[in-house]
Amino acid sequence: MVNARSSQPKPRLFSIPAPAVARHPDLLLGSRQLKAWLDTLPLANPPKAARMLLHQLRLLSRDPQPDTRFANLFELFEPPLDTLFQVVYERIQLNPESALPLDQLEHEVLQNLTELAYGYLRVANELLTAGKAPSAELLYRATRLLDQSLNIEQLHYHRPNIDNWRLLLSIYLHAAQYDIVRKKVDRTLRRRNEPHTIHGLFYRALLISFCDPHHHRPSQVAAWHEWTGQHTAGLDLAMLPKGRANLPLDISGQSAPLAAARRCKPGPDIRYLTADTFMQTLKEDPEAPAGLLDALDALLKGRRTPEQRQNERQARDHPYRLLQGLRLIHQRLSQLMQGGNTDPDPYALPCRQTNQSKGGAAFRLQGPINPPLMISEPILAEAESTAPDAPPVGFVARIQRLLMDDAKQIEIGVEKLSGRVLPVEITGRATERARGDTLALLQHAADSGRFTLIATRNIYREGDLVNIEGPGVRYNLRLLSLLGASPRVAFIDVEPGEA
Fold it and tell me: Strand pairing of 473-485 and 465-470?
């Protein structure tokens, strides 16, 4: 374990926004006056309440004349902000699988969470400047707010805020310096099932960042977040790698956790997360969330290979059009195979290809998109033609990564489906399970001879037989195993029987 007092340099002041030039006349400095104002917030109108709260909070957190008594004023902001956070989190639960961009309320709540964290850290800076140690409770409050902000961003595939990560890391290092990182706070400072130490909050955020939430569905990430918070006790940072499960972390804050885990080399600012006990708990706990162990295993194995990518990316800047949804992809492939109209599909989404490799590609397109994109769903990418009579060029792929920004611009990474992809239709008794969604795709990888059926998830029953028909093909397929799935679409390993 890292002995923070001897191995870490003395922490500097927290890096937060500069204070205002002068005190604003609208600032409320009396506890009773501020509490009375907060009681008038229109919480039945969450966006308006969030805007009003942010205005007053920003005036206080950036006031040029702060003192330690400000901490009591900041605490008054927590109850209404908790109410707004709960509204946002409940709305996320209504769409636990989709890539929905942040809306107005969510933007406002994110800014409130970060601003309140700035306020507590400004109080901490005043204490540090006076040669006093900030309390565990003060730093815990700031850590919890930044963790909540990070969690909302992850559940929306939002581009991570590296400045917030640096603040989280800085708080952890300060708490370790003053030996309060594992000090338990009162239950009134946290929600039920939240970690009760700065250690727990920090390592939960670190582990989930290591697992690259942009590669997984929001429901998975939410389950990881809940379970991990209760199982961080055995996690620590070491000066040197220990055991099998160790991942490097750049404690200078220059590299985000995932970037450090993939590329960092040993150095004075590198520490190693020792996670053998955590990994063993993941394997043995029957209630451990699905996918978390696989995500960590994949990252650890990637560290032991010379190149994480099988094929190098090549930069591109070419206009494309994307089709999503089995029905539209099926219709377009059928049209092209029959030699019909090759004009772009009117439902296709304009985008630009930003890079490609032998097995994948990346695209940028403008959101919002309805229906929203999902991890593990197929798309058809078709290059825009530069000549009137040029044949269509494109490929079928599977979405593997999603990322969004404040302008609602979406970046996706896809894995190309190798071999031949045919539009087929499910027939026979299996149509009852399909509930009308009988259009599907059949992938045949010529190099391995493997067949994959891409169909509505309702069709999957391990060991069952499914009849399919398509252009020049008719198969009786045995469903073997799920290779991946979203709530709408399943990629099923199948074995063809007699025609």
Answer: antiparallel
